[in-house]
Amino acid sequence: MIDLFVDALDRAGVHHLVSVANGESAPLYFRLKDDPRFTVIDACREGEAVAIACGLHLGGRRALLSMENFGLYECLDTLRAMPIDARIPIPVLVGYTARPAEGHVDFWNGRFGNIASQAMLAGHWTEPLLERLDQPYAVVDKAEPEHVIEKQLQAALTADVPSYLLVQSF
Amino acid sequence: MSLTDFLAQLAGARGEHDVVLATMTPAFLWPTVSTSDLDYCYVAPMGSVGPLGLGLALAQPDRRVIVIDGDGSLLMNLGALVTIGAQAPANLVHVVVDNDGYAITGGQPLPGRGGPQIRDLAAAADYREVHEIADPGALSSTDVERIRTVPGPVLLTAHVETVYDRSTLPDLTHSAKALATQGPAGYHNLRAALTA
């Protein structure tokens, strides 16, 4: 799935990654960091990353934003005030921690047992939140056929507003 | 020294092709002192103008980018100093208006008031040039050089008088210039000018 992402980003002219550390997209992060076609900008916090991506767009560049779903909650005000309000077409790769799926055990609920309940709750917020905010998103599952993932990527990369790709793992 | 008087000095010092991004209280006042089309003014969220300027400076490395921030605004996203220092854009000037409080929300004091100085934090975050403007009402020739040509990232602080009455701020619709530089329209107008 990484190759699909890298090729789609390159074709769409998205050659900057603005990233806040998250486990789900780490394989793509390191791949882009090693690819001379791409520039990776590490940000300390999600709201800051949103503003950097908007600044790149303001100057005529395109960036992929990368953050965890917990970080998405952190930066809602910046998303609201900048790319959502101004309809800035930024694709947002959201690491889908604690995705609510039957039989699914991820790092959090696998390691922390009952303590994971808060993380699971946060996972349950992600899709309803984006729906409530009227934000277009797709859950990208690497088990899906390539043509399905390619279609999701194209939709996000050609949208004229922020568009979100929820990825549990690469 | 009033904030408006300082901003007028800054408007006179900027280069013809320099971009100015202004946020919070300065965003209301900047359109009253600037005649440039290369301005973007907005009022939320606090703490975003430094990173916004960083992105623009990286996208257009041959163009000087001046961001006008507030002390309280900057504190809302303090990690951005580290991100900017790490990226080290030579064309970014970060002007921080220092008035000891949150003017736009009525004058609440800054956390840590009298403690860590923003210029010290910026120096620790590897800003290349950090300086406190001695007289915001009469910029020196070296102040102007720092604004226009000294390799960045540059951080300049300017202490202005404390006015916490937001009813004194101009209406954002007071002029065509203000309307053209504000909010989403302002963003897209500036983008069109920069990418034409």
Automatic annotation (TrEMBL), chain A:
Record-linked InterPro entries: THDP-binding
Superkingdom of origin: Bacteria
The name this protein goes by in its record: Thiamine pyrophosphate enzyme N-terminal TPP-binding domain-containing protein
Automatic annotation (TrEMBL), chain B:
Keyword hit for Lyase: yes
Keyword Lyase: yes
Gene3D superfamilies registered for this protein in UniProt: 3.40.50.970
Domain (Thiamine pyrophosphate enzyme TPP-binding): residue spans on this chain: 36-119
One Pfam family it belongs to: TPP_enzyme_C
Database matches in InterPro entries: THDP-binding (IPR029061), TPP-bd_CS (IPR000399), TPP_dependent_decarboxylase (IPR051818), TPP_enzyme_TPP-bd (IPR011766)
Source species, domain of life: Bacteria
Keywords assigned: Decarboxylase, Lyase, Thiamine pyrophosphate
Protein name listed in UniProt: Thiamine pyrophosphate enzyme TPP-binding domain-containing protein
